[in-house]
Fold these 4 entries.
Entry 1:
Amino acid sequence: MSTKTAGKGSVLSRASGGLVLLIVGLGCGGMIAVAPDIAAAVLLLLLPGVVGWLLDPTPGKAIGRTMLLFQGAASIHPIVSIWFQCDGLDACVAMAADRRTVLVVLLAAGFGFVLTQILPMALKLLDDGRIRIRRARLVAERQKIVEEWELERSE
């Protein structure tokens, strides 16, 4: 019974993943049809994050998702500027390819990558420190009880 349930869950998750991909594809196609100049600029800004997401070997693509999230957040202001100020494909791509814009977007993606790499190590160090402090407290409490009750020390 449980194998059937697990099988259904994986089928449902695959189907919902395909549905999300379909909806995103339709949205991107609509964007390209309505405003190809802005779509080209957005593609230019988000391309490194998408490539990182596609090449991410980790389970769940955690590194790629974090990079894309940070890069997308850094791309909001340039995309809004492009939406309201550009006039034609050349102007839109030129605004998106501005050195400062590209640098900010790439630094945001790099920060997402570094954060994904360092955060697990930092949490492990914090957990190890917490365990060491707790162990020292328990050893001191045990020593106090041994002295109070005049028990033999068995370490």
Entry 2:
Amino acid sequence: MGVTMVDCLALSAGSGSMVIVCVPVVPPDDWIVDHQRRLRHVIEDWVPLQAG
């Protein structure tokens, strides 16, 4: 079962008014697993900067 997210963007209509446009975004079914995998790679390779 997929997850549907909504991405919204506020646009200026030129006359000082704003228009909000929302578009449904349907990520691939494996997006959570893929994100977790990429996050693990970043954490494994992370080298903190030494202060001072």
Entry 3:
Amino acid sequence: MGKRTIKSITNKIIKTKRQIKKLAIKKRQERKIHLIQLGTLFNIMELLDESQEVMLGFLEKYKKLSYQQKQEYFLIGEKILSEREAKTYDDDLDERKKMFFLMIRKAALLEKLKIHLEDSKIILGYLNTFSQLSLEEKKSLEERGKEIFTDKPVRDTIISDEEKMKILKESIIKNINITKLLKDEFNTTIHNIKRSQLALIEEKIRSRI
């Protein structure tokens, strides 16, 4: 193999490496832009300062949404966007950097759960429900979020007596046989409800008419 041939191959390798590097940089930039766009949804709903663990636990439930629920959230998200006034960002560069950092951080949760390619209007409509969560529900979601982050089971504790009383009161108001509900759908009793079950049980009670 002649010197010219070796040099030609070397130049091709160098050129290929440069092209790969450019593509990698472009891909990272595109990902960053997409995450900022998704992060805007959290900014609209004023959720940038919410705990990562709570938000991760909350977003995981998105994966269980039915087609009908997604359509309903799509309409809600569309309405929120249509009524939203154009927002100007802070002139302070440091504040803008901080905001974009938080936006990317929140959007990365969607990426972690592999729901980052879902319709943004549906996601926005779903995020709109976060404000309706009780402190007890957020605690439960936080435990689940920690479990997802660590990939290790977090000790699933029994809910407090106050939380048990709240469930009983709500079931009485809605005329729900809570003993039967817990046994049939959760294989538990009012005395043994686990924290990981709390949010779903409360959701079941709320959905009963």
Entry 4:
Amino acid sequence: MNKPFFLFLLISCFLAIFPIDSVFADNTKCKLTIQEIRSSLEEKKIYIKSVTFRLNSSSPYRNANQEVIFVLSGGRFENQKSLDFLNSRKLQLDIASQVVEVCDPVVRVVFGLDHSDFTNGYSYHKGMGVRKDECSEYQPRGNNYLNWGEERCL
């Protein structure tokens, strides 16, 4: 059997057994923290549809390049509670700071509303902690590259 094919097969089997989320968040304390956050929000009738860990290639930090995305349910009855949460920058900042502190190597946390473009991002900045991402206007004919700590504004 050829070596590259065997390696590919081995990696594929590993990823089939361990979903990407569990590979990136293989930290018991992190998983417990995420579950506590989810439970706390659900007690306030803010329902989380999904929590996803993914790589963020624009991270300026060599060994910390992951982000966590919380997608809130945006159904007819949950919508107002989710919108109230998304307008509460202090609560989001507290949660994002907690996640970045506990879930190494996470450096960015995003909160979004299901079936919408409504998102708020919070990024870690060395020496300054976690901060709300700055609004960057979309320029259809210009440079659409976002710097670290920026997000698209609609």
